[in-house]
Amino acid sequence: MAISELPTSVETAAPRRRTAWQQFKRVARRQPLGVAGGAIVILMILMAIFADVIAPYDPTAMNYSAFTAPPGTEFWLGTDQMGRDVFSRIVHGARTAVFVGFVASIVGAGIGLVLGVGSAYFGGKIDLVFQRVMDIFMSFPLIIMALAMVAIFGTGVDKVIVAITIPFIPRCARVVRSTALSVREMPYVDAARSIGYSHTRIILRHMVPNVMAPFLIMITAFVGQAILLEASLSYLGLGVQEPTPAWGLMLQGGAELYAESAPWVAIFPGLAITLAVFGFNLFGDAVRDMLDPKLRSQ
Predict the structure, then answer these.
(1) Which residue of 8, 17, 128, 157 is surrounded by the most CB atoms within 10 Å?
(2) What angle do CA 183, 285, 206 make, to 5 degrees?
(3) How far apart are CA 223 and CA 108, in angstroms?
(4) Residue 13: DSSP 8-state
(5) Positive or negative: CA dihedral 156, 218, 143, 265
(6) What is the tens place of the pLDDT at every residue in 101-129?
(7) In 8-85, where does DSSP find H-type helix?
(8) Which of 133, 152, 55 is nearest to 94 (CA)?
């Protein structure tokens, strides 16, 4: 065969891109519990957004002719001791849980991100003092720290968010700092210092993007904890106050007095809290497995 007849190029088959459905099936096979948790999270968010459409009754309206009515066709999950529809209050309580959980988690983790990266970057006495202060905050359990914050700031939705946010800050800062310490020693950070970049530019452009994986993992873990903390504070009468629908308040009113005569008053709010926390924990574990290269490679 003549040289001119030789093929001048070799055609290679382009890699086929997976469709969205194929990618979803692949993730579902590898992380079935994570997909289940994600479905619970999405369902809870949609329920919170469209609570006014989903709830058949006003969650604060009292029906004096239907005190502790059992579940049925009129009231799907029954009514509480004040004649309020349990299903409607659970749906609107999801709005309170989602709002408090996401705001407290994002703000607490965001402040922890800034403090953790700054402490790792500057090091020295700044890092030493910062870590000792974080040790003091972390020596208290979350619920004890939240109770102390409520005692200082008071009750109400906004106060509960602050009370839950503050205990999250040192926990996120400690995790982010451990990752940022290794990033600080990277050659590109030294190169940025050598050409005169400011501390702010180095932190924002070179360090923060490289600690986003643990930051996102902490947010997903914090949401479930925040929902449980909000319910605990409301159950104790130190969180969200009436007439705002909240799952903890529903337990406070019926968990003990109506455990035998009207158990649905406490069972369904308790199931809502359990399912929400369980869903966010499963979803957080899946996010951790996907973002952690050590676990992803296994």
Answers:
(1) 157
(2) 20
(3) 11
(4) P
(5) positive
(6) 999 999 999 999 999 999 998 888 888 99
(7) 20-30, 32-49, 51-54
(8) 55
- What is the token pair recorded at 115? 């403090």
In the block, residue with structure tokens 């991100």: 113
What is the spatial distance between Cα 62 and Cα 131, in angstroms, rounded to a whole number? 51
Instruction: State whether residue 174 is helix, strand or coil.
Output: helix
The pLDDT of residue 17 is: 63
* CA atoms of 91 and 77, how far apart (whole Å): 11
Structural domain boundaries in the chain: 33-59+73-296
What's the CA gap between 247 and 89, in Å, rounded? 8
pLDDT by residue (tens digit) across 123-150? 888 889 988 998 898 888 888 999 999 9
Kindly report the backbone phi and psi dihedral angles of residue 72, in degrees, each rounded to the nearest multiple of 5, phi listed first. -165, -165
Tally of residues, the chain: 298
| Average pLDDT over all residues of the chain | 85
Per CATH, the number for 33-59+73-296 is 1.10.3720.10
The pairs formed by 231-238 with CB atoms below 8 angstroms and a separation of 24 or more are 231/97, 231/273, 232/143, 232/146, 233/146, 233/147, 233/150, 233/160, 233/163, 234/160, 236/147, 237/155, 238/147, 238/150, 238/155
Cα 129 from Cα 89, distance rounded (Å)? 46
